[in-house]
Hints:
Elements: H1 7-28, H2 31-36, H3 41-50, H4 68-80, H5 85-105, H6 108-120, E1 125-128, E2 144-148, E3 151-162, E4 169-175, E5 185-191, E6 197-203, E7 213-224, E8 228-229, H7 235-263
Parallel strand pairs: 1-4
Antiparallel strand pairs: 2-3, 3-7, 4-5, 5-8, 6-7
Helix pairs in contact: 1-3, 1-4, 4-7, 5-6, 5-7
The site of flavin-adenine dinucleotide has 13 residues, from strand 1 and strand 3.
Amino acid sequence: MDFELTEEEKAFRESVYQFSKKEIAPESSKPEYDEKGEFPWECWRKMGEFGLLGLPFPEEYGGQGASAMMTVLAKEGFALGGADAGLTLSWGAHTILCGVPIWKLGTEEQKKKYLPKIASGEWIGGFALTEPNAGSDAGSVRTYAVKKGDRFVLNGSKIFITNGPIGRVFVTIAVTDKSKGPFGISAFIVESTFKGFSVSRKLDKLGNRTSPTGELAFEDCEVPEENLLGPIDMGFAEVVKYIFMWERSCLLAPAIGSMEAGIR
Ligand SMILES: Cc1cc2nc3c(=O)[nH]c(=O)nc-3n(C[C@H](O)[C@H](O)[C@H](O)COP(=O)(O)OP(=O)(O)OC[C@H]3O[C@@H](n4cnc5c(N)ncnc54)[C@H](O)[C@@H]3O)c2cc1C
């Protein structure tokens, strides 16, 4: 098997490296962002313009149609150029944890509504799974959703949510049939403007401080039925399948880029 990068792949990685080095690193690495735990908004806007935020989505939804390999190379090049690690973490939660499930499982209406805004960076995305009593054991989430008329009503809380304090749209995991265990858990697209949604706390962290992390509260949060993502009761299993395929590959790439920067 040939592990060499193609000329196209090398050129793409180099272009993201140059973009990061010239346009992102000088700003995002200013100490005040890290000290204050502030999100570098101007860098985010530039990342959207450059096409990084919707990299893997099809072009018809505002993306670049990049393969998983190209996405990994972009993340490597971005870190190699010296971009702040928190910004890379927020990018991952936004594009991979929120955008990819919508792209892979969403209805045509959902894809048209959300993916272009995620690709441009106009709306920041996140993924709300973890709860105070459900971390590694993700199947034991307690946030639940009950169907009432043409909407689902969500109650519960989420913790450690990347982009929580600044996000506009969250792929949110909630129990829909407790009797079915992990096969009774669904996924919903929840907008931060929906009634009953709130950010209950912004969390302070030791590292990746430019990436805002927060706690989310769902108090009789009303989610239109058309915002169910994937099949009822099986949305969680489906979302996790796609997230693992993409996120596991993409999560490590910035670390490789940072290590290469260190060696250089
Ligand atoms: C910076 C940051 C960003 C995050 N962003 C998000 C996000 O965007 N969305 C989201 O949903 N979540 C997010 N999380 C949460 C993350 O997914 C959880 O922290 C993770 O799933 C672990 O859960 P926990 O923290 O409750 O630890 P626990 O599950 O309580 O684990 C604590 C320790 O116990 C060990 N352990 C657990 N179970 C076992 C076992 N059965 N046997 C042996 N050892 C075990 C673990 O390996 C770990 O070392 C984020 C977390 C961090 C730190």
